[in-house]
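WARN no homologs supplied; continuing
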Amino acid sequence: MDKQQVIFRDLGHMDYKEAWDYQEKLLNENAQLKSEFVIRNSELVPNRNHSTYKEPVTSIQYPATTHYLLFVEHPPVYTLGKSGNIDNVLMSEAQLEENGIQFFRTNRGGDITFHGDQQIVGYPILDLEKFYTDIGKYLRNLEEVIIYTLADYGLKGARSAGETGVWLDPDIPGKERKICAMGVRTSRWITMHGFAFNVNTDLSYFNNIIPCGIQNKQVTSLEKELGKKIDFEEAKERVKKNFEKVFEVELVNGEW
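OK structure emitted
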């Protein structure tokens, strides 16, 4: 059976709001296709008000939605999930402006996190009805992508019970450190937002927030763990490879 194709686009450096609007555009295009598909196929369902009707569809059919995986780097920005606590931002608006850091309240899950240079931010726009209708499984698979990538670098990534994302030593009190944050949104089973994987990220920015609303736990990066600067493009290729592996898809480069 042929693998599903996912269009990959590397957006480079882009403001958070511009990337958010682009995700919304892709999601809405897919949602419109799904709506049209439902209307079109409703004509194939028996109509009890008439004596004759078209034969129902006997094989599984799907709308012509398109899957995407977007990579991007954002200028310094804090983003707060829809159920997040603003008290987890430890800077005032004036301090944020003075330090050139943007702030956005978002419609994703999760709490507060940071995006910045040399962090792989991945935004999958997937129609989960073509995979599985299980948000929990989707999040676990996103985590698995990063866990496999960490293994490529000789690190043992893991999950922390009740806390979405990827950690190192999550079960050792005082040593728990998060290397990848996650927060997603779905509409009509189409995903947006995603993960933020710290590669050579400036971790000092996390000192101004309570990351993900979790007290007394550290944040780390590949650079910090390995004690050297990481080839950023190579790291992106490893994440892409592992995304293909976990989701059993084929990434196809798309123009941007």
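Residues 40 and 185 are 27 Å apart (CA to CA).
OK
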